[in-house]
Design brief:
Blueprint: H1 16-31, E1 37-38, E2 53-58, E3 70-76, E4 80-81, E5 84-86, E6 90-96, E7 98-103, E8 106-111, E9 115-118, E10 124-128, E11 134-140, H2 142-147, E12 154-157, E13 160-161, H3 164-168, E14 185-186, H4 194-215, H5 223-234, E15 241-244, E16 264-272, E17 276-277, E18 280-283, E19 286-292, E20 294-299, E21 302-307, E22 311-314, E23 319-325, E24 331-338, H6 340-347, E25 354-357, E26 361-362
Helix pairs in contact: 4-5
């Protein structure tokens, strides 16, 4: 026995440095082999204590290398509600249907196009109050939260039927903000666009220019021309239209609409007009969910087709990409970003976003 076994102590040497080198090489290889597109028609649906139907679109568990992030799709059947649970931050966008979400005990109504922020460790529950399925996409950093040992997932109540007693206990909606003044829900029709902001900025600039010109008694110095160039650069038409949801991130706008998302945010909806493409740029991980239309993306020079219901991952490395609408109808994509990206941007300028072409362009 003593010939085969020996005591190991914490003082024994371990070649952890070799493990780090191996892990580095493995990670570099894995991110180059990301599947890129998750097909909505190929999703594998599961039944959980919290949801009747839940499918992961982007995540390590379905073969996508991530920063500990995920994108899922969920369906709440008519007459049903999800369980009540709590965990790290979550961002939700309603794809179809109507109902309500309870966050921290307060009610926020949902309809197609509503975006929701669930703050860290707030109990929440989705209720279908319509006649059809309520479907939404959900993003979180669950694996990252659990990996750093600061995350928890607690099931507080199971899913179930909307019986009379359950419906009688639902509170009335008091608005879209919580008791701390944080925005929890935003309906798409209330979302500002970057075009609106650009026009306001341009009007403000023209007003300042006219005031300055009057003060100079008509002696111009070229500031108007310079100002116009500045506005064009700051608010380039990166897409046909940009609807600002939780805002922040790579947006030219600082508008956040009262949202306070940190680890995960559904920042904007990008709209591409027929026969056009977006700006050409590089950054690390983000996800697009196709809400409407058909298109394709060029990711590091490779062509990937997608359609409504699919999701596109920009892998967690500096990835060059551009999104195209070759059709005769518009496309709309929901952009999801994860805050860990900006933590590393702050550490190393090599991860800063790069604009290779700042504006969207018309395509034949």
């Amino acid at each position: 026995m003593t010939d085969r076994w020996r005591t190991v102590t914490r003082l024994e040497r371990a070649d952890f440095y070799a493990d780090w080198l191996e892990a580095s090489e493995r990670n570099a290889s894995i991110v180059e082999r990301s599947p890129i597109v998750a097909r909505g028609k190929d999703l594998v649906w599961i039944d959980t204590p919290n949801e009747d139907r839940l499918a992961m679109m982007i995540g390590e568990q379905v073969g996508f290398p991530t920063n500990g992030t995920n994108l899922c799709r969920a369906v709440v059947p008519a007459g049903r509600h999800t369980g009540l649970h709590r965990h790290g931050e979550e961002a939700i966008h309603v794809v179809s249907g109507a109902g309500a979400i309870l966050v921290g005990g307060r009610r926020y109504d949902l309809r197609t196009g509503t975006t929701v922020h669930v703050p860290y460790f707030e109990g929440h529950q989705v209720v279908n109050l319509g006649d059809d399925d309520l479907e939404y996409v959900s993003a979180s950093t669950m694996d990252l939260d659990l990996f750093i040992r600061l995350g928890r997932l607690e099931q507080l109540a199971p899913k179930g039927d909307n019986d009379r007693a359950f419906l009688a206990g639902l509170p009335e909606e008091e608005g879209q903000l919580d008791a701390l003044g944080r925005r929890i829900a935003l309906h798409l029709e209330d979302a500002p666009t970057e075009g609106d902001r650009h026009r306001r900025s341009q009007a403000d600039h023209e007003a300042r220019k006219n005031t300055e010109a009057a003060e100079r008694l008509g002696h111009g110095d070229g500031s108007g021309e310079h100002g116009n160039r500045l506005i064009k650069s700051t608010h380039a038409h990166r897409h046909g239209a940009i609807y600002i949801l939780m805002g922040g991130g790579e947006s030219a706008s600082d508008i956040r609409n009262g949202f306070t998302a940190v680890s995960v945010a559904m920042t904007q909806i990008f709209e591409e007009v027929p026969h056009s493409s977006s700006h050409d740029h590089s950054h690390t991980e983000a996800v697009l969910y196709a809400l409407e239309g058909v298109g394709f993306s060029e990711i590091d020079g490779v062509h990937y087709d997608w359609q409504a219901g699919d999701a596109v991952q920009i892998p967690p490395k500096m990835t060059r990409h551009e999104h195209f609408n070759p059709s005769d109808a518009r496309t709309r994509t929901l952009r999801i970003e994860y805050g860990i990206r900006y933590f590393y941007e702050g550490l190393w300028p090599g991860y800063f976003k790069v604009e290779h072409r700042e504006s969207a362009v018309e395509r034949p």
